[in-house]
Amino acid sequence: MPETITDYVCTACGCLCDDLTLTVDGRRITRVEPPCPVAASFFLKERPEPPAAALIAGQPATLEAALARAAEILQTAASPLICGLERATVDAQRAAVALADKLGATLDPTDDAGRSRNHAAIQTLGAVTATLGEVAGRSDLIVYWNCDPAATHPRHIERIARHPYTTPDAHPTPRRVVVVAATRNATSKQADEALTLRTGGDLAALAVVRTILAEAPLGDETAIERQTGAPLAQWAYLAQRLKAAKYAAIFYDPTQLATDGPDAIVQSITELVREHHRHSRAVALPLGSPGNAAGAAQVLTWQTGFPSAVNFAAGYPRHLPGEATAAHMLERGEADAAIIVGSNPTAHLPHAAQATLNKLPTILLTNEASDATQQAAVTLFTPTFGIETAGNVFRCDNIALPLTAAIPPKLPAAEELLQRLLKLLN
């Protein structure tokens, strides 16, 4: 008989909504409520069962033989790289840190496209942040900066932006929602106001708004319009909206920011929030990535002191953001073996990095067969993250949430495989 699971945590996007109701029939999820296209595409997707528990050089193998082969590869490697980890539970991420420490490896969480996270803005400026619940309950202005949550995080507007906030006199009141975007997107149609931004004009526009908030002199108005794509009057209006707000929240999506400087844009948003505090309360939050990206940064920070690009070759953890990112290590040919957990970045890495990775003995922990599993030296199949896994994950606002298995797993969890591999190295 079909089973109903309530209050399920969804990892399909960075919202990590924890109020889903799933209908499970056998080993399939047949219904997802409330309606969400991103959640539906994730939970209702057909996933053929792996051909075996493990593969060695693309051929079915026993789990014991595959683990022994993986241990052999790692014992002979001088500079192994561990990456992925964003579609893994906290327990799996902790096991990866222990393995990296044992091997003297480099550990760098990467997303499905092989991109490393950059935490430079937080490290240099700090962060003014809040929980999503606080924003939903207290903010009277939300600004979506050059992102489209209606398409990428469909329930964000429903649960956060359109959730009535409570004024000090306890009256629920609709908040103002403003979109600043280079194109009119799905979110623009749902917002109260949509402001224009030139493609690539993020830094210039943020600098103008920050200057207005600081009541400092501005440059030529013609130059401002040319650089930002909108007249000065629009940015003065946005600055006035921010000044008038008792609690403003700015949301952005790092994956959608300009490719030539997303880290600089995040830093500029942080600087804008700091300047805004001269007038009233403000916070800045990322929309968040699918899976457990925030968890990876949390685990690395509390285990090593650093959120990414951690190298253990010296016998202790060192943070090398310009050297120890996965793509940079591969481009320079510095890794001689790789462990990829919960992602398949091979098709998205820079050409030089991809070419190097194709030559390395690779150990892949994944839940589905693909071209990458045929090319890997060892493939260890794992339960589907977010459906067959249990453990803890972190939301984009760094709130820990419990993850349960909607479908009982048939395969060992990623953390168990990593722990068994660690024991073989002792």
Automatic annotation (TrEMBL):
InterPro entries: Formylmethanofuran_DH_bsu (IPR016457), Prok_molybdopt-oxidoreductase (IPR050123). It comes from the Bacteria. Transmembrane segments: none annotated. SUPFAM superfamilies: Formate dehydrogenase/DMSO reductase, domains 1-3 (SSF53706). GO terms for molecular function: formylmethanofuran dehydrogenase activity; NADH dehydrogenase activity. GO terms for biological process: methanogenesis; respiratory electron transport chain. The keyword Oxidoreductase applies. Keywords: Oxidoreductase. One of its GO terms (cellular component) is membrane. PANTHER family: FORMATE DEHYDROGENASE H, RESPIRATORY NITRATE REDUCTASE. This is Formylmethanofuran dehydrogenase subunit B.
